[in-house]
């Protein structure tokens, strides 16, 4: 076991028995003076455990720590349950469901179904209301669970003042400040949309400049939405708003969708589907400049240089900035605690999710790496299980982020979904030989029956071991199909087991009988 983990565990155990005053810890003179100043001027509370941010790991962790008998405080600056519930997975997938209904309603005649005069009308306010209702209900559930567990929740912004102490500024508008200290601190403060530096961006009407959060609050469908960035958040919104009735143009810096490691065959397949749905995609875009115009409906002129079409002027009603996310560490005062960050501002984490400061852990998106709810939740499980392991002194393996690394799945919730598990093609070890099998969605009986054949499946096999290295599905229910293959990978099964299994007919998974009869290639990654 790593020494620092043992130390942390000892700290947690010993402190839960004997609570110490908040000023017990003076790492240096500056900190000592700061502590003395705040001690006499501000209300101060000490806890065994302090969780910063109520993301997908912080929220369950706070309840768990309380259940271990530790006095636990959670500080949240915006709303309980973090990005996933409030502005990420939950609201977007709720809206994507509305988009899919609009898509199917337009295609209803193809299935022999006719209603009214066949026109599809989108009530954006109802789409938004449905989204808000589901978010409120999910958030309410998290709030109740924290309350039920007896966690002390403080709504405010936290900033470190020393290694084990934070200043919390209330977010209720009264500017009230208090000091909270703890023996163990768990940072789960997440990320936020980045704002690119684009010439003219500040000159256009700011209500028309959207990010992944504000776009969900639109009460009307935009006339022409220009999505800056062809990453997966931009694509989900791009297809969604096209389906809701907007003209949509995606401008992307790279030569194809996604990042450099993506398999060109897969992302080109996805791009074709989006184009078929009416989303315009421009690649190799550079020199993007914005200008305000007097056009009432399309008041943003976006000048771009494109790889294939040369210089273009696009006239937009709204733009969506989808150029990535930045960690919420810039206002966290990490320097006061001596917590190390990467050049991008992410907090450096050990495989057991400890920072360089003993007793201070980091969980979720803010540590960098794959930014998904399931990863953040698994961070909670790693910390939880290691704490239990240490305090119960039972034999057992320490859980680490390295153990799960080969098996982190992702799903882009376009329709069809783009699901993937295993290393991306460009991340495979160079020089090693692999076998790939791929087949089009039009080979899947279920797809033909439901008239949903767009997409493809692709698998990469290690030719030395016959084990599955990665699997991708661009398919309706691609995420569920991927999960079947994920099980085989987690269990270390050879690909022949999938080929020979008896899958129910006609399920999407039945395609795993046929994939191996598809196109076979031997590849070596260069
Ligand atoms: C549009 C969109 C769609 C997404 N879709 C998916 C999806 O389909 N599937 C998926 O797996 N992931 C998706 N994600 C990513 C997912 O939402 C995150 O990976 C997930 O929420 C994990 O976040 P977290 O636990 O790191 O923290 P977060 O959920 O980001 O929570 C961090 C919390 O900390 C609070 N905070 C920040 N700074 C402070 C401070 N100084 N003091 C106090 N509190 C603070 C924030 O207010 C926030 O509530 C999506 C993200 C976006 C933006």
From TrEMBL:
NAD(+) binds at residues 229-236, 324. GO terms for molecular function: flavin adenine dinucleotide binding; NAD(P)H dehydrogenase (quinone) activity. This is FAD/NAD(P)-binding domain-containing protein. It holds the Pfam family Pyr_redox_dim. It comes from Lophiotrema nucula. FAD binds at residues 93, 365. Coiled coil: none annotated. Gene3D superfamilies: 3.30.390.30, FAD/NAD(P)-binding domain. Residues 48-377 form the FAD/NAD(P)-binding domain. Keywords: FAD, Flavoprotein, NAD, Nucleotide-binding. The keyword 4Fe-4S does not apply. Its cofactor is FAD.
């Amino acid at each position: 076991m790593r020494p620092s983990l043992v130390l942390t565990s000892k700290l947690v155990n010993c402190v839960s028995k004997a609570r110490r005053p908040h000023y017990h810890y003076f790492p240096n003179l500056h900190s000592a003076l700061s502590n003395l100043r705040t001690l006499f001027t501000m209300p101060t509370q000490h806890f065994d455990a302090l969780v910063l941010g109520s993301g997908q790991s912080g929220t369950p962790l706070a309840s768990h720590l309380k259940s271990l008998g530790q006095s636990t405080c959670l500080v949240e600056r915006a709303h309980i349950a973090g990005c996933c519930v409030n502005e990420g997975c939950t609201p977007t997938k709720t809206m994507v469901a509305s988009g899919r209904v609009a898509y199917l309603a337009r295609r209803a005649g193809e299935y022999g179904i006719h209603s009214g005069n066949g026109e599809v009308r989108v009530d954006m306010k109802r789409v938004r209301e449905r989204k808000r209702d589901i978010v409120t209900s999910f958030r309410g559930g998290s709030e109740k669970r924290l309350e039920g567990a007896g966690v002390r929740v403080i709504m405010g912004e936290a900033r470190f003042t020393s290694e084990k102490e934070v200043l919390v500024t209330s977010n209720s508008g009264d500017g009230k400040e208090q000091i909270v200290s703890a023996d163990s601190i768990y940072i789960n403060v997440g990320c936020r949309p980045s704002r690119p530096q684009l010439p003219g961006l500040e000159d256009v009407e700011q209500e028309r400049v959207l990010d992944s959060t504000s776009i969900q609050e639109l009460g009307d469908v935009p006339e022409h939405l220009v999505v800056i960035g062809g990453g997966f958040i931009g694509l989900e919104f791009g297809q969604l708003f096209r389906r809701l009735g907007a003209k949509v143009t995606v401008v992307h810096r790279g030569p194809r969708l996604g990042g450099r490691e993506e398999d060109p065959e897969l992302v080109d397949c996805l791009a074709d589907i989006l184009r078929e749905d009416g989303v315009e995609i421009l690649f190799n875009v550079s020199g993007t400049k914005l200008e305000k115009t007097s056009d009432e409906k399309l008041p943003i002129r976006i000048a771009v240089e494109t790889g294939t079409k040369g210089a273009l002027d696009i006239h937009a009603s709204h733009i969506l900035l989808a150029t990535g996310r930045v960690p919420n560490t810039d206002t966290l005062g990490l320097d006061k605690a001596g917590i190390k960050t990467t050049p991008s501002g992410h907090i450096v984490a050990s495989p057991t999710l400890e920072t360089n400061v003993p007793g201070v852990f980091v969980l979720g998106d803010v540590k960098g790496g794959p930014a998904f709810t399931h990863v953040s939740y698994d961070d909670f499980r790693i910390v939880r299980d290691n704490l239990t392991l240490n305090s119960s002194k039972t034999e057992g393996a320490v859980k680490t982020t390295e153990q799960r690394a080969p098996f982190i799945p992702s799903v882009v919730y376009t329709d069809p979904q783009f699901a993937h598990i295993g290393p991306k093609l460009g991340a495979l070890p160079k020089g090693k030989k692999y076998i790939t099998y791929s087949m089009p969605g039009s080979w899947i009986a279920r797809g033909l029956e439901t008239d949903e054949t767009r997409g493809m499946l692709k698998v990469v096999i290690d030719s030395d071991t016959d084990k599955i290295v990665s699997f991708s599905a661009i398919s309706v229910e691609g995420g569920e199909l991927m999960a079947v293959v994920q099980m085989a990978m987690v269990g270390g099964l050879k690909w022949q087991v999938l080929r020979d299994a008896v899958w129910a007919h006609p399920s999407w998974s039945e395609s795993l009988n046929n994939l191996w009869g598809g196109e076979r290639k031997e590849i070596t990654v260069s």
